[in-house]
Amino acid sequence: MPLNRALDVRAMTNPDSRVTIHMAASLDGFIARQDGRVDWLETSDEFVGGDTLDPGFVEAFLKTIDCYVMGSRTYETALRFEAQGFGWSYGDKPTFVLTSRELPRTRDNIEFHSGDLAQFVNGRLRPAFRSIWFVGGGVVSAECLRLGLADEVRYSILPILIGDGIQFFEKLDRDIALHLTEVKAYNSGIVELRYEVRGHRGESPNAS
Ligand SMILES: NC(=O)c1ccc[n+]([C@@H]2O[C@H](COP(=O)([O-])OP(=O)(O)OC[C@H]3O[C@@H](n4cnc5c(N)ncnc54)[C@H](OP(=O)(O)O)[C@@H]3O)[C@@H](O)[C@H]2O)c1
Asked: Which of 146, 148, 168, 171 has the fewest CB atoms nearer than 10 Å to its CB?
């Protein structure tokens, strides 16, 4: 679907809905090692004066998310984590997995989808959910931006460089203008950046 058409459809469906892309990445912009490992997500830095993440706040915040969307490789990683005893990160929220394959469905709140992503987001998700979180990986995040579907990007930068890996946005083929709306530094050394995607909802990409 052309970008302008995707924007029109979105405006018609649920103007209050919001698509957020969120991932954690190394300072050099990778969300996983080339082989998919995310062992580097555990870091031991300490930033004196940084904010502390209060578990009560995190719990309340997660409740504001209405559904998750992820690529099949991210789903496979989540399944591996669960099998290793690390639990399931997405609670009982509806979780949509984009895939063209037959994958194991381990819980009732998981649904698989293949086909036109813009139609799926604008026609199915936006009318039903307010806060829609894309949680990776790089292929799906890039597709979401390329199609003009994202309203917001949240980027948690970890205090580490890993040199090579899967990029936050794999093969993004055009510039995407952003507007910085929030910066938070935590005592763990993680910096969270929050951006509005410019040029959506009829706004000029170059507006200041
Ligand atoms: N650091 C973080 O915060 C973070 C977050 C998420 C993921 N990760 C890591 O990132 C890695 C995975 O990222 P990735 O970029 O390789 O893969 P991904 O984006 O998770 O998944 C890509 C796959 O999803 C399917 N897909 C994508 N768009 C589709 C569409 N419109 N319709 C149907 N299926 C679609 C395709 O696979 P099919 O062959 O199944 O069709 C595609 O190969 C994992 O190692 C994961 O651990 C890290």
From this structure: 171
The sign of the CA dihedral 131, 135, 140, 141 is: positive
β-pair type (131-134, 152-158): unpaired
Which residues fall within 8 angstroms of residue 207, CB to CB, at 6 or more apart? 198
Q: Which helix H or strand E contains 112, and what residues bound it?
A: strand 110-113
DSSP H helical segments within 64-137, as ranges?
A: 72-83, 117-119, 126-128
Residue 123 DSSP one-character state: I
Cis amide prior to 137 (ω within 30 degrees): yes
Tell me the per-residue pLDDT of 112-140, one tens digit each, with 9 for 90 and over: 999 999 999 999 999 999 999 999 999 99
From 140, 155, 157, mutation site for ligand 1 pocket: most ligand atoms within 8 A of C-beta: 140
Residues 6+ apart with CB under 8 A from 124: none
Q: How far apart are CA 181 and CA 154, in angstroms?
A: 10
Contact 202, 164 (CB under 8 A): no
Summarize pLDDT for 18-41 with one digit per residue, the tens: 999 999 999 999 999 999 999 999
User: Could you tell me the distance, in angstroms and rounded to a whole number, from the CA of residue 184 to the centre of ligand 1?
Assistant: 27
